[in-house]
Amino acid sequence: MGHGRLMRRAALFVLLAALWGCSDPEPPAAARTGDMAVQETKVRKWVEYRGGRMLWEFRGETVRYYEDPERVEADGVIVDFYDDEENYSSTLVADFGKIDRKTSNMEASGSVVMTNVDGTRIETETIFYEDEGERIYTDDFVTIYRGNEKLCGYGLETDTGLNETRIRRNVVAETVGDDRG
């Protein structure tokens, strides 16, 4: 082994030893608060039923289960919503999502896109789902594409099928190109 190679290995060892012994790295926020996941899985599905009817299906690339408060958190979230006859009505896609396991309310954040069967698309950064009223809402800036219309504004209330949609304030509407070719 050459002298230069030996010196590089010794320098690397000293550097690693110094880094190892200087201080313990700060644990993640969850560990500092004692809020550690009790289970973590890859590509997991969570389905919500009410009165025998499927309401939604939540999937995540990495899913974590917590006990206090009882919740599920996931990265790479896809949620499919179903109507009263259990027909598919819309899909929500986001970078991150969580479900309150007691109420079945959900929150999704990070590049949120929600699309229904008619092609209506909503884009925002954070969106909430209230399970009891099957209502979608946010206070964030939203953009809605419906046919050749584009609506922008702040705050949104809608149903899971995106049929009765309302932007709360600062609404701007414009006509966009016909994407039917």
Structural account:
The chain is mainly beta and 181 residues long. It has a single domain, classed as lipopolysaccharide transport protein A fold, CATH 2.60.450.10. It contains 2 helices and 9 strands, in the order ααβββββββββ. The protein has helices at 3-22, 29-32; strands at 39-50, 53-67, 70-82, 88-100, 106-116, 121-130, 135-146, 149-159, 166-175. Strands 1-2-3-4-5-6-7-8-9 form a 9-stranded antiparallel beta sheet, with no helix packed on it. Strand 7 and strand 8 form a beta hairpin. The chain starts with a helix and ends in a 6-residue tail after the last strand.
CATH architecture: Sandwich
Query: Can you tell me the overall shape?
Result: globular
Order of helices and strands: HHEEEEEEEEE
What is the overall pLDDT average? Answer: 81
CATH class: Mainly Beta
Number of strands: 9
**CATH fold-level topology:** lipopolysaccharide transport protein A fold
Please state roughly what percent of the residues sit in beta strands, choosing from under 5%, 5-15%, 15-25%, 25-35%, 35-45% or over 45%. Answer: over 45%
Compute the separation of the termini in Å. Answer: 67 Å
SS-derived structural category: mainly beta
Overview in brief:
This protein has 181 residues and is mainly beta. It is built from 2 helices and 9 strands.
